Each structure stands twice: as structure tokens, then as C-alpha cells.
Amino acid sequence: NATASSWIDTTYVKLASPDDVNALTLKNEHGTFTFIKDANGEWSMKELGDQPLDKEKLTTLLNHLTSLQMEAPLSTKEKPEYKMSSPLAVVSFKAKVDDKVGDYTLTIGGKEKEEDQEYIVKASNHDWYVKVDEFFVKDFVEYTKESFIKQEPTPTPTSSQ
Predict the structure, then answer these.
(1) d(CA 17, CA 28)
(2) From the DSSP assignment, how many helices (H) and strands (E) are in the chain?
(3) Which residue in 32, 53, 56, 58 has the most C-beta neighbors within 10 A?
(4) Cα torsion for 82, 84, 87, 91, to the nearest 10°?
């Protein structure tokens, strides 16, 4: 097979589990969102104030971060077409990666072509710029503050007969 994924380990960011992340900041065109885990393992989002955090949305982000897979390596040198000078999202997180606790950054640039299904990504603990399927990074790019507000279920009207 001629695809890169058939002859390389495609794991780009490797965390044992989402529990390895202790803090996360997401910056995209919709704002900056700061998530902090307390001593009991409960997450909160600074920007929500008293509004309830939709923990499922945060879990989705953590799961994508935990098992970020590349489609193909590109280069160890930044190129203008990677659009890293004006990234679509920057994810900063404190975590245990490869058995080392530290601060890491994942920068999500653009797509090489608008119709592509992959974004160009660079992790601070890697030399390589890589292509990553939009499945793993689209939420980092698109989520807004409102995305993280837990919506109460809408009551269904009951018919009185």
C-alpha cells in the first residue's frame, strides 16, 4: 500500500487516557476557553461563570487529543501553505505525554486546499508538521462558548385528554 499510514505509526499525540490532561486552553476565532480540573477530577470552564459545562463536549475534545492520528507527515520545516502564522485553533494543555508531565501546544493551521478533509497540525513535542483528518480537529476549530453550555432538555408537551 502506498499510503503513509500503512508504513508508519500514525499516532501523533499519545496520551494514556483523557485523565492525563489536567488543564486545557482552546483559542480559536470564537474566543479563548479555559478548562481546569480540580482535585476531585471535576472540570470547569472559566468563561462559563455559573452556567453548567457540557462535559460531553469537553470529553469529545479530550478524546480527540488523547488519540490524535495523522494521515501523513509533511515536513520538519514550516511552509506558508500550512497557514501556521494565522492558525485556526491553538490548544494548550498540561498533560502526561509519553510518561512526561509538561505543557504542550497543538497548533491547527489550515487545509492545503479548501476541499481537503485534512488540516495541517503541529504539536510542540514533535518536529513534524502533519496532516490530520478533520474528524480529530474540527471541534477545536468550530466550537464556540455556547457549544460548552449544557442545554437542559426541552420538556415535551403532554396532551391532556
Answers:
(1) 24
(2) 2, 9
(3) 58
(4) 110
Q: Which amino acid appears at position 38 of this protein?
A: D
pLDDT at residue 160, as a whole number: 59
**Edge-first strand listing for the sheet containing 129-133:** 11-14, 67-75, 129-133, 118-123, 100-108, 89-97, 21-28, 31-37, 43-45
Report d(CA 124, CA 104) in Å as an integer: 6
Paired with 90 in beta bridges are 27, 107
Residues sharing a CB contact under 8 Å with residue 66, sequence separation 6 or more, in sequence order? 13, 15, 16, 17, 18, 20, 21
- C-alpha 19/C-alpha 69 separation (Å) is 19
Q: Which residues pair with 96 in a beta bridge?
A: 101
Helix (H, G, I), strand (E, B) or coil at 125: coil
pLDDT digits over 31-42, tens only? 999 999 999 999
Half-sphere exposure of 71 (CA within 13 A, CB side): 14
Kindly report the pTM of this predicted structure: 0.86
Q: Which residue bears the cell 508531565?
A: 101
Q: Is the pLDDT of residue 6 over 60?
A: no
CB 34 within 8 A of CB 45: yes
